[in-house]
Amino acid sequence: FPSLCRVAMCVGKCSRMVGPCLLVLGTLSVAANILLLFPGGSSKYLAEGHISKHAKAMPGIWGGGIAVSTAVSTASFLACLWSREEGMEQVAPLHPPSTFSFPQLALLGAAACFVLSGVGLTNGPLCFYNASEHGHGHGTLWGYPFLDAGSQELDARTENYLHDRHTWSICLEPAGVVAWNVILFSLLLLVSATEMVLASLQILNGCLGCLCGFCEGK
C-alpha cells in the first residue's frame, strides 16, 4: 500500500502539468478546425457551402477544443475550492471525487474528435473536380473524388490518395485543398490522440487518489 501511495504521488505531480497542456492542445484543436473551414484562407467556399461535411461537423471545436478545455478548467476550479476548504496552501495534486467526471468528459471529447478527423482524412476533401477522369459522367462537379474513386476498396483508395500526391491535382478548386485537408486533419488526429493520453493520465490519477487519499505527506 505505501508503494501504491508513492505511485499516486508521482502521478499526482505529473498531473499538475496535464491541465495546462490540455488547454494548449484544446486551443490548437479549435484553431485547426477553424482553418479547415477556410481552405486556402478564403471564406468564399464556406459561404457557398462547398466545405467538407467532416470539417463542418467541427469535431476539433466541440470535441477536442470546448469539451477538453471546459473539463480541465472546471476540474481545476473545483480542485482549488476543495484545497481551500481543506485549509491547504496549494492545489491538491489528487482531485476530489466530485471532479472524476471531468477527465472522462475530456477523454470522450478527444475520442470523438479523433474518430471524426480520421473519417475526414480517409474520405478526402470536397472539391471541384473533373468527374470524367473517374468514370462518373462527364464535366466538372463538386464532390469527394477520392471517396467516389470507382470500385476500389476503402483502404486501397485511401492509401492511393494519401501516398500518391500526383492524384491531388484532380481537385481544381479550392487551390491546394487536398494538402490543406491532409495536414489539418492529421494535426487534429495527433492533437486528439495526445489529449486522450493526457486525459487517461488524469483518470488514473483520480483512481489512485480514491484508493490512497492525499498521501503526499506520507
From the alpha carbons, calculate the radius of gyration and give it in angstroms.
Answer: 22 Å
Helix content: 55-70%
Shape: elongated
Number of helices: 7
> Main beta sheet, described?
3 strands, antiparallel
User: Which whole number gives the mean pLDDT?
Assistant: 78
Pfam family, one: L6_membrane
Main location: membrane
Protein name: Transmembrane 4 L6 family member 1
Family: Belongs to the L6 tetraspanin family.
Structure summarized in a few sentences:
The chain is mainly alpha-helical. The protein has helices spanning 2-36, 44-48, 53-56, 59-85, 101-123, 154-163, 177-212, and strands spanning 127-130, 140-143, 171-173. The protein has a 3-stranded antiparallel sheet with strand order 2-1-3, with no helix packed on it.
How is this structure best described in words?
- By secondary structure, the chain is mostly helical.
- The protein has seven helices and three strands; from the N terminus they run H-H-H-H-H-E-E-H-E-H.
- It has helices at residues 2-36, 44-48, 53-56, 59-85, 101-123, 154-163, 177-212; strands at residues 127-130, 140-143, 171-173.
- The protein has a three-stranded antiparallel β-sheet, with no helix packed on it.
- Helix 1 (2-36) packs antiparallel against helix 4 (59-85) and helix 4 packs antiparallel against helix 5 (101-123).
- This is Transmembrane 4 L6 family member 1.
- It is a multi-pass membrane protein.
- InterPro entries: L6_membrane.
